[in-house]
Design brief:
This protein is α+β, with helices and mostly antiparallel strands. Helices cover about 25% and strands about 15% of the residues. It contains nine helices and seven strands; from the N terminus they run αααββββααβαβαααβ. A seven-stranded mixed sheet has the order 1-2-3-4-5-7-6, with helices on one face. The longest helix is centred in the middle third of the chain and has 14 residues. It is globular, with a radius of gyration of 20 Å.
Length: about 280
Amino acid sequence: MAQTGMSHLLDPDGLPLFSIKEINELPQAQKESIYSTIVPAMIFEEYGFDRQTFTAPQKSSTLSENRIKFICPQGLGLLRIEIRRDATDQDCLFFVEVADTPYRQIELSFCLINDPDSPRFNIDHDEQGRENSFATVRRNIPEEIKAMNAGLSPNQVRRGLKAFKDFFAQFEKFVVSLGIEMIIAEPLSYSNAVRYENYGFDYITGKQLMLWIDREFQFGGVLTARLDGSTPFRQQGMEATVRGRSWAIHDGILDQPWDEIKIYKTVGQHAGINTVVTSVY
């Protein structure tokens, strides 16, 4: 068992809990108390949410109450946490969705930590204003160009708060407390995959593709040759950064869609994987 010495999570009767589904059978207040442990500390320390009531400072909302939302229905192994600085905000300050798997794992399905004061780029809607699942269905090229030029990665609508490291440390402790040893995920983009490598993830599927991408973004490589200036996302020099590569891949530079990349982490262990074996920044 990875990370020994941590207490197993217990229900009010002292019985061990082994899954999100089992936690979701508890009364709402008890569930929220458990799940609040994976909320980044900065939500409470910098944005003033109360650790007991999970409400924002009264002055921050035009409504009578702005509260952390814990969506954790009984009968399902699913948890979603939504936090907005103000109840009327379009975007969450913090959003996470996790779920049980049939194989005694926890899936980290989605995590966003947005800087609410940073500029917003509407890449999550097409040019007609239709929702597009973060540009995975339809794209908004003008907004994507603006986001790229502002230093964002594909699928980002705002700059982040650099709080993922703290969140993930707490999340690993939570997973260990359930007696679970593995976290799985599906990175939404190339840059996400590289980022997860830095947090100790290995590949279930997709490692050979990642190594091929790195190789073919070298001098004389297939992907470098495709950086022909035909679109704003295929400019020479983009091979030199993970973000640049990620935008080119988002633009369809591969021979296949970015799909079926699955990763895992054994809690408490760092896999030491680095598919970017060349010097990029």
